[in-house]
């Protein structure tokens, strides 16, 4: 019998894990609930990736082609995990959906990714009520599909506001963590917007600008110095609407004054949450969640992919908010952990 | 002839790379210029690691023991790289110091780590002039060696200030990037300080608090809510001394007022720079540096460890500021990249 690994989730982390596991001599079944591979990059049609402005479609093409051309990787899209039984270190996984079969795996990689926070859950942003209030993911789709226009009337926006930390760092909505990438993604989007909207006023309303590491000057400073984006340290109390335009009410915490400013377009930098399936899969595979509902890393200083359960590993945003390149790296890290786990059990 | 890999640098990234390369069936020579392994963790005696308050010595013990006990890893401490010649994909490396020999390697991993910014280079902090102005690394050494006391007079400090972004995000000193971990490390240190100094006033002077991801509530919020640490958004113009105590002069950018506050102890959160040897090694191995002097990642979305030169890989803080667990993960990522590179060349 060949030694087989189940990878659950076909985003960047899962795709990388599937490819690398195969390179290490293992047979892989890659299970993806959507009818397409690529995870959030595909779902939201990310065109231009942070931090290096590389192409999202090209990244996906490479990752997807690699697994599709690999005879040792079975790709099951439109498929979900039903029941899971383990005996003697072998996982018997009943699949549902497009591939209703039972598979056996000696190890499992959970790469179930994230969902964006839905800003409709927090009434103060007016999301779902005011057509010109959109999410960052919806802005990505606008970049993909055509020119930037106000959804309400199709006009070119003359002023755009980004609101940071929507659904992140917010005890009231229950998400006390930071989503890591939204600051830098917003800076990237503002730089892209500037190319399309040379005259627009672009303002960022932030608590802290977390363009950490080498993103600092390449994204944050560049957005200010080249794209003329203005950063306002301010808390948004609510978004209302007046004369058909969204109005941001809040307090500028630097100049200590309240403001009430209309904008043509408001972009909500909505954070990351554990994907809808994560809780259910964690139960099925009996792995622990950490306090925010992400899959708990049992020993990150030893290996980022270890869970509390031997034979079950995690990669990518399933264990917390993460940038794409970090998710891809964790696909490798998980593959190595699987390899070493199985090497200790069987002769590969 | 066995297939051999040279790992340059014996910090967490290099140690992890050496161990993993061996697990993948390769022979490794680990070259470390210091007389000890462990990189910055050993050099500064980090006792309690961020983010999980795990033990630095235990981490090092595990990493070092693994390579020392591995018959496929030769460990050369006190050794540096002299000349490097490549022919037909084999690197001929002349070593200097404790092991003056020539080694052959089919691939090289550069894991040359970082140095802390030396605050004496920026006169405004009074570092080197005022005894009670210390660096975060020196505070770690205080934690390791004994109780926290004022260097000037041995008294228990009643007030402690941390200054963030020393040598980071600062065009004047030439470091335009953010060092990623100093915010969170300072929060960790403040929580530790509180245990020793239950009554001290502890203040953090910051530009942005970048406790990204899951560090937000576990370190930033916890330092405020459990340890009573006060965060002041403020820029420090200079540190002077009055009546034997350091005085912070600056502007509180939130309440818009100048301040001039004395403290018993001032901790400079000094950022990360490319290690002294990085530039020289990059020249010897003909790999490109990015704009800040770190080793350039050629294609991070494909693999974090790729450089512009085939056969030469990078791991850890040599390519930019990085947390310890990220450096360890990159040791794995680089090992896999080496493995796949060599697999394409020879039969392993």
TrEMBL record, chains A, B:
Coiled coil: which residue ranges? Answer: none
> Record keywords: Acetylation included?
no
Signal peptide annotation: none
Query: Which keywords appear in this protein's UniProt record, sorted alphabetically?
Result: Oxidoreductase
Q: Which residues form the FAD/NAD(P)-binding domain?
A: 4-124
Task: Provide the GO MF annotations for this entry.
Answer: oxidoreductase activity
Q: Enumerate the InterPro entries for this protein.
A: FAD/NAD-bd_sf, FAD/NAD-binding_dom, Metab_Enz_Cyan_OpOx_G3PDH
What Pfam families does UniProt report for this protein, alphabetically?
Pyr_redox_2
PANTHER family per the record? ANAEROBIC GLYCEROL-3-PHOSPHATE DEHYDROGENASE SUBUNIT B
This protein is called what?
Heterodisulfide reductase subunit A
What species does this protein belong to? Sulfobacillus thermosulfidooxidans (strain DSM 9293 / VKM B-1269 / AT-1)
């Amino acid at each position: 019998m060949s030694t087989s690994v189940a990878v659950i989730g076909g985003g960047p982390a899962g795709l990388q894990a599937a490819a690398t596991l195969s390179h290490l001599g293992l047979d892989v079944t890659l299970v993806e609930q959507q009818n397409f591979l690529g995870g959030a990059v595909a779902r939201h049609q990310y065109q231009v990736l942070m931090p290096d402005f590389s192409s999202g479609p090209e990244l996906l093409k490479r990752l997807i082609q690699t697994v599709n051309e690999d005879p040792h990787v079975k790709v099951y899209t439109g498929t979900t995990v039903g029941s899971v039984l383990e005996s003697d270190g072998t996982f018997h996984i009943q699949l549902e959906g497009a591939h209703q079969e039972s598979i056996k795996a000696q190890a499992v990689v959970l790469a179930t990714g994230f969902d964006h926070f839905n800003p409709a859950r927090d009434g103060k942003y007016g999301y779902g009520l005011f057509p010109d209030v959109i999410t960052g993911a919806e802005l990505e789709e606008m970049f993909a599909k055509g020119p930037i226009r106000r959804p309400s009337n199709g006009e070119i926006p003359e002023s755009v506001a980004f609101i940071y930390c929507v659904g992140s760092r917010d005890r009231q909505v229950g998400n006390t963590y930071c989503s890591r990438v939204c600051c830098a993604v917003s800076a990237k989007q503002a730089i892209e917007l500037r190319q399309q909207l040379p005259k627009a006023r672009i303002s960022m309303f932030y608590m802290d600008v977390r363009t950490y590491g080498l993103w600092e000057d390449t994204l944050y400073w560049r957005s200010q110095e080249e794209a003329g984006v203005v950063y306002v340290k301010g808390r948004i109390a609510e978004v209302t609407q007046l004369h058909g335009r969204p109005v941001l009410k809040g307090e500028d915490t630097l100049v200590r004054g309240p403001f009430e400013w209309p904008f043509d377009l408001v972009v909500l930098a909505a954070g990351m949450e554990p994907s809808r399936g994560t809780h259910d899969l964690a139960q099925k595979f009996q792995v622990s969640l950490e306090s925010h509902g992400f899959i708990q890393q049992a020993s990150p200083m030893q290996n980022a992919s270890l869970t509390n359960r031997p034979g079950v590993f995690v990669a990518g945003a399933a264990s917390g908010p993460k940038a794409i390149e970090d998710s891809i790296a964790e696909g490798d890290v998980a593959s190595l952990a699987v390899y070493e786990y199985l090497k200790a059990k069987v002769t590969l």
